[in-house]
Amino acid sequence: MTTNSSRSRLRAYRSLRPVLPYVVLLTLAGVCRGQPLPPSRSFNGATSYQTGLGRHVLPLRPGEIAGKLSQPVAHSEIAPDAAMTAEVRMAPTRSSFLANWKPVPGAAGYRLDVSTDSAFRSFAAGYQDLDVGAVTSRIVGRLRSGTKYYYRVRPYGLGATRMTSEVMEVATAATADGLVINPTFDASITNSPNAAAIESMVNRAIALYQPLFADPVTVEIRFRYATTSPDGSQLPPGAIAESFYVVYYVDWADFITTLAGDTKTTNDVSGYQNFPGQALTNYLVPAAAAGRALGLETPPAMFANGTVGPGGPYDGIVTLNSSEPFQFTRPPNSSNYDAQSAAEHEIDEILGLGSYLGGAPETTDFLPEDLFSWSAPGVRTHSALGTRYFSVDNGVTKIIDFNQDPYGDFGDWLSGPCPAPSFHVQNAFSCKGQFADITATSPEAIGLDVVGYDLIPALLPPGGLGNISTRAYVGTKDQVMIGGFIVTGTKSKQVILRALGPSLPLDDKLADPFLELHDSSGALIASNDNWRSDQASDIIAAGFALFNDAESAIIRTLQPASYTAIVRGAKGEVGTGLVEVYDLDEAADSRLANISTRALVQTGDNVLIGGFIVFGDKSSTVVVRAIGPSLTAAGVDDALQDPILELHDSNGALLATNDNWMDGPDQKTITSDGLAPGDSKESALLANLPVGAYTAIVRGVNDTTGVGLVEVYHLD
Length: 716
Known about the structure:
mainly beta, 16-stranded antiparallel β-sheet, 7-stranded mixed β-sheet, 11 helices
């Protein structure tokens, strides 16, 4: 958010404001964030949500800004990029493809024809003799899926007008799925000496996003290279880049229900089970594109001048400041900012990243990213003071820290001094000479995944169990925690195992967990004490960095077989610990199945708590068992003599309970499936469970204690 004062321009870099039908409620020279107005159920015809205007500014660092305040804003473009004709590659989508052609020496520009007819007796709408300027590639959009198209170009200038290229052909993808970003370049780019380099850079950026997300959404973005905002006002001093975008005010409960119903990736499953139990604000405010990714009626509504209203063709507008030293090819030198990183940053804003924090007055309504803001495991925070970080598993795993510097955007990532030791697209401040891209495992992609999009590499397989965890008291000798799991199928599978203790929000927690992985013969495969001592870079890259350095983790690729994870105190300590197994390769032809954990069952917080996830596109039938007395025959001296079993959903609601399995309604089915417990006092439940996260709790009848075993078997 910005105001007319210089200080406010420096301090506030995001604004949101609701917009009434056909009326612009703000002047962009003095944007402010205000309270949402009541939703208009008839606004825009097709939508029942009130629109708003969002604005984000990527700033210089405070020290760099101070040096510019006394300088007049001047238009001083850098020299045209020498490598502007580098070829860009992008796979065709359902409604677009990238046209490439070879440069013609001396050509001042090119005219493009696109047709479904190889003889060009008709043309695709908008692509007859289209002047695309002095570029050698162009994204052709708004096409039909599964259709073959032909294109050709004619150079003009210096006597080349009569030349026509060979006819090239390409087919759009025969699918209804996949993200599509349609760029529009305004005159500030097409008339720039850097036009070819800028358009090529934008095309490269878009080519990174489209293969990552499965959502059947087309996003319309207008790109500019200027010293002014879309309405003609000067960019704030120190602005490197800026984005305007459309937002919609959606009732909290409606949005949460819709988001929870979009559980399609591993990030969704872990992230969506920890939503607040009650509304924290009246509305959640997704970007228009993110709303459509969830199936909401949130169409584009922005005009070329940045105003919002019915019929606006754009989801957002990106402006790169042409008075700043941008470089459009890589690597950027130490004197230039990387243009593509800045463009990707603003694309992320238009797609839906960002926080409500910052500015005055602050809006009281969250953006979707605010649902994943934590200060400690289990402790959600929305304060601009102290520490905040992005996490999708109840704050247990810190993916990245949020920026808390008021001169930057609170929805961006924490940025260290330049050169940044860890440079990301969404860093709150850019650094000359550094660059980054969105990738399948980057914080930006994970963020977009959980605010409404579906990250293709994280899509869940058709069905099964996964991402298992158990919390229990870790003793010594036979009372250590032992987790068992099976890799089924025909191919190897990469998994990560983690042992947590110090970061648990409990008093009696295991101070220094030690983790071992054994094969079915009992042979030791790997062990770890402190996770940073081994495989730290792989663990961080996988998005599973632990909150405390004393906790443990192991990444291994395992062949189909049964395995055991053992958690004990590194120096014989005792306390409550948590063991987890996560599937890092859901696409592999193998599954995690038939999971179990053995540990000491006590009372209060120290009962045996097993978590598991049902994933896929359909419900799964499982058998959950609580074993105690029959462990004595396996050599366990202090076995739990009478376990009772509870099954809870992700909200903590009790789904079923059982004391003695033979008294339950499913004892015949459990027996016929070969899963009858060995003792009548043991417990078992049969349940058909929809996709989601579940918890099995084992305690002793009348608060008795002893070593118990919780097991989950997948029957489908």
